[in-house]
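User: Sequence in, structure out. Go.
Assistant: Echoing your sequence, followed by the structure tokens.
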Amino acid sequence: MALSWLNGQGWLDVSRSERYFCLRLFNAIERDVRHFVRYLNAVYGLSLSVDADWEVAYEVSFYRDLSVHTGAEPAGKVTREFDMALLSELKASTRTA
């Protein structure tokens, strides 16, 4: 979309918000997660299974959410937050140089 008050550009062209970028990327990956897994394999030399049951997650507070889910207290003040995460049952193996 071109907006006159943005000199013919759309908000996607102007925004510098990391959250906005991650949300757009999340939506693109969610539409075809297998395509994204193939991309990761090709670019980073990974061997992730394209056929795995992948879930893409957005704004992940891993230990907080996991502790709420399990009812367990997180160990200490450990935090692990991700703008995005790709989750699966399978482990990845990487190519070593």
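User: And one key feature?
Assistant: The beta strands are 55-61, 81-87.
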